[in-house]
Amino acid sequence: MENEIEIKIMLIPENIPLIYQWLNHQNILCHETEELANCYYDTPDLYFAKEKMGLRVRSKNNQHEITLKAKGEITGGLHIRPEYNLALEHNFPELKRLVSHYNLQLGDIEQLQQNLKATFSTDFQREKWVVAFNQSEIEIALDRGLIKNSQDEEQICELEFELKQGNIIDILTLLEQLPKQNGIWFSSLSKAQRGYLVGYPDKIAKEIEKLAAYSVENHSEIETYQFAQQLADFIRLTDSEPLIHQYQQLTAEKVDSVDYFTSQDYFAYNLSTLTKMNINSND
């Protein structure tokens, strides 16, 4: 088991050349491109989704691996989650083997294994660079592809900054140097979360109902910020005016339209807030 520490940023395809230009000025230790086929599994009653977990089988160059991403912390675009991985001989999701290997507690494993079914896929090309920055090594991955389920599909176009070794502050400092451009934004939604939502307006509506009824009274600064970023994710999905109003009340940020949530102003606000919270947590 390892803790995956990464920052997820979404972008429009038109901004990819700008990212390439910026990357060419970094201290690149290695660079490679790979094709990744990922199938996510769950039970008919969505056990893993309800537990805020993701269970997938990834295939690359005829090699297969099962991964369980457990519930962790997601603050804005910063994702810190326990991750359990196990190599497979084929692409069948051997959950029992994974649970036994790591001695995990997941309820009735026999029943879970029997009820697993393919729920959606995320197939994409990953181009990745490992860069040396300050005292850290940071992997930057550009993912481009599709999320597909039985109802619909959605484009993947995102950057992930993963800490390989060093300090999370170095990722945030590196992001300060990222070109400031509309159409690059932080997101708390993982590919797995998006896979459950694509083509399901009823599920999105239920999430919006939960957000609208949620109160942050007596919550910490981090909890309040996390909630604000969840609002932002669903505002981008739905253009919901009530959620925009709720976001403005919560953050005191000026929001003229839904375009704010993909703007360079929104990016700068998130980066400043994340940096401040991480510096304070290390004091």
Give the topology:
Layout: E1 2-11, H1 16-23, E2 28-42, H2 47-50, E3 54-60, E4 63-69, E5 73-75, E6 78-88, H3 95-102, H4 109-115, E7 117-133, E8 136-149, E9 153-165, H5 168-176, E10 184-186, H6 191-197, H7 201-213, H8 221-238, H9 241-251, H10 264-282
Antiparallel strand pairs: 1-6, 1-9, 1-10, 2-3, 2-7, 3-4, 4-6, 5-6, 7-8, 8-9
Task: Give the terminus-to-terminus CA distance.
Answer: 28 Å
Number of domains: 1
CA radius of gyration: 19 Å
Total helical elements: 10
3D structure, described in words:
This protein has 10 helices and 10 strands. The protein is α+β, with helices and mostly antiparallel strands. It has one domain: Hypothetical Protein Pfu-838710-001 (Beta Barrel), CATH 2.40.320.10. Strands 1-6-4-3-2-7-8-9 form an 8-stranded antiparallel β-barrel. Helix 5 (168-176) runs antiparallel to helix 10 (264-282), helix 7 packs antiparallel against helix 8 and helix 8 (221-238) packs antiparallel against helix 9. This is CYTH domain-containing protein. It comes from Ursidibacter maritimus. GO terms for molecular function: inorganic triphosphate phosphatase activity; metal ion binding. InterPro entries: CYTH-like_dom_sf, CYTH_domain, YgiF.
